[in-house]
Amino acid sequence: MVNKNEARYKKELEFFKEILKDYLDEIDILIWLALRDDGRISDTDLAKIANVSVPTARRRRLTLEEKGIIRVRGFLVFDKLKLASADVLIKLKPGCSAEAVKDFITKALEEPRIYEVSEYIGEYDFLFRFFEKDFRTLKEKIEEFMIESNVVDHYTILANVYTPKIFSELVNSQSK
């Protein structure tokens, strides 16, 4: 019998069970899905969702965290705060030294406006995600950051006007 909380995640659960089968079982996946929706959820509620005892839910959650498989963090919801954000795709200059690229990444990690750094394979080398109080300031700060770098060949700014999945009220209100 499928409990109502498991039914809530049924479509996702089948997908994640297939791609994560070598790493996580159904209980771990349900715990992760619940934490994804609400990082402050109690172990009691996790236990109900995963259909296990509270000590089991707590132990599973802690194990996932200790292994570094999940991280429970707080994120700013840019839409709610009316902040501007953008994805910046970056192509490095050919022949950049590894040290220069490392320095560039270190600078990005230290920049408070950048909230994500991802390395890519393909047309672009990196994705940096920036945020600021408004789009005008955002554009200025991105351009300053890129111009100061000696490793950037070119970049593309993609302004983010709406994020309907990861941090939206719509998803969170539907899941409750």
What does this structure look like?
This protein has 176 residues and is an alpha+beta fold. The protein folds into two domains: 4-66, Arc Repressor Mutant, subunit A, CATH 1.10.10; 78-160, Lrp/AsnC effector binding domain/regulation of amino acid metabolism (RAM) domain (Alpha-Beta Plaits). 48% of the residues lie in helices and 18% in strands. The chain has nine helices and four strands, in the order ααααααβαββαβα. A four-stranded antiparallel β-sheet has the order 2-3-1-4, covered by helices on one side. α4 (43-50) crosses α5 (54-66). The chain is elongated, with a radius of gyration of 20 Å. Residues 169-176 have low confidence and may be disordered.
Percent range of helical residues: 40-55%
Shape: elongated
CATH homologous superfamily classification of the largest domain: Lrp/AsnC effector binding domain/regulation of amino acid metabolism (RAM) domain
Which CATH class of the largest domain applies here?
Answer: Alpha Beta
Strand content: 15-25%
Strand order of the largest sheet: 2-3-1-4
Report the order of strands and helices: HHHHHHEHEEHEH
- What structural class do helix, strand and pairing data support? alpha+beta
The DSSP helix count reads 9
> Do you know the CATH architecture of the largest domain?
2-Layer Sandwich
CATH topology name of the largest domain = Alpha-Beta Plaits
Biggest pleated-sheet summary: 4 strands, antiparallel
Distance between the termini: 21 Å
Q: What integer is the average pLDDT?
A: 89
Number of domains: 2
Q: Mind telling me the C-alpha Rg?
A: 20 Å
Q: Unreliable segments (pLDDT under 50, ≥5 consecutive)? A: 169-176
| DSSP E strands, number | 4
